[in-house]
Amino acid sequence: MKICLFGGTFDPPHLGHLILAQTIYEAEHFDQIVFVPAYKSPHKDRSAVSSVDLRKKMVKIAIKENPNFVMSEIEIDRGGVSYSIDTIIDYKKKTGTDSKKLFYLIGSDSLKTFHSWRNSEQILDECQIIVAIRPGFRPSDIDNKILAKIQFANIPRIEVSSTEIRRRWIEGKTIRYMVTQQIWEYINEHKLYL
Ligand code: ATP
């Protein structure tokens, strides 16, 4: 099986995530894209993040109609700060996936800080990093040693982020077409982000 792990906070999951995952699935001939909601992202201010139960439920809803998308609760079950290196090693142990068949998908905004991720060099040995280019990305911002070991993917540029969606929701603006209808309903019903 050729697997792509897709970690994120998913607060909420949006069409940018889904289109990215679907594009990569097709272009790279993956067997599965595994969405991995973070328990506690090392990169985000925790007080501002929705509960893990809400985020998990939203990921489930967002991917449920796509048989090629699955969710792993590996970071939720492990608890603590969700370091990608631990997730990659745990996932390989649990599933027996080989380093050559295991990919880890990130947006190019995350790549900028990749050098500061825990055990970033080991991550590059344990799996293949695949980077989706987002606007504003300049390869010159990235260390050559990292550039040599990663793969870039061309994806349609859908400039929507969870931050923008939360902001618009708070301001009473529409988030139509940024999230699926079912996610819209979930946010509305659970009075998220207010
Ligand atoms: P936030 O705005 O809260 O930081 P986000 O929209 O960036 O959230 P995350 O859940 O943090 O979403 O993202 C998970 C991964 O998806 C990250 O690697 C991020 O770069 C990537 N990503 C998010 N939105 C897009 C998008 N529109 N296009 C491409 N990649 C994206």
Structure, briefly:
This protein is 39% helix and 15% strand. With 194 residues, it is of the alpha/beta class.
Key descriptive features of the protein:
binds adenosine-5'-triphosphate; 9 helices; 15% strand; 6 strands; six-stranded parallel sheet; globular; Rossmann fold; 194 residues; alpha/beta; single chain
Describe this structure as you would to a colleague:
By secondary structure, this protein is an alpha/beta fold. The protein has a single domain (3-158), classed as HUPs (Rossmann fold), CATH 3.40.50.620. Helices cover 39% and strands 15% of the residues. β1, α1 (15-27) and β2 (32-37) form a beta-alpha-beta unit. The termini are far apart. The protein binds adenosine-5'-triphosphate. Residues 8-11, 16-17, 20, 106-107, 109-110, 132, 134, 158-163 line the site of adenosine-5'-triphosphate.
Multimeric organization: single chain
Globally, the shape reads globular
Structural class: alpha/beta
The CATH level-2 architecture is identified as 3-Layer(aba) Sandwich
Number of discrete helical segments: 9
Q: Which distinct ligands sit in these coordinates?
A: adenosine-5'-triphosphate
What's the number of extended β-strand segments? 6
Helix and strand element order: EHEHEHHEHHEHEHH
Q: Output the CATH topology.
A: Rossmann fold
End-to-end C-alpha gap: 41 Å
Q: Could you state the CATH homologous superfamily?
A: HUPs
Low-confidence regions: none
* Estimated helix fraction: 25-40%
For the residues shown, what is the average pLDDT? 95
Largest sheet: 6 strands, parallel
The level 1 CATH classification is Alpha Beta
Rg (CA only): 16 Å
